[in-house]
Amino acid sequence: MSPTSFPAAYPDPGVTRRVLAESPELMVVSFQFETGAEGKLHQHPHVQSTYVARGKFRFFRGSETHELNVGDSLVIPGNVQHGCECLEAGELIDCFTPRRDDFL
Predict the structure, then answer these.
(1) What are the residue boundaries of the Cupin type-2 domain, all occurrences included (predicted)?
(2) Domains plus CATH for the chain?
(3) Backbone CA torsion sign across 93, 99, 102, 104
(4) Tens-digit pLDDT profile for residues 39-84
């Protein structure tokens, strides 16, 4: 499937999600956030990495809090509760292993 074949989704207010590439073993996803938008606390069995392409974010991972800026990244183990708050409008590039079939 070509990248343009993946439709945008709107999982939370002020958040746009677009799958960029996928295979059964790995998925790459862009999340665009407006300032103040939140990625609600959740957890899933997938290992997730997140990379800040633009903006500034506060991440919650288990009992930890991290502020990430452009160029920063974070790994979230499977089944760990996590979420984020967008402090300055931006974009996250997330990778999931295995693929998040619920995003397709």
Answers:
(1) 31-87
(2) 21-103 (2.60.120.10)
(3) positive
(4) 999 999 999 999 999 999 999 999 999 999 999 999 999 999 999 9
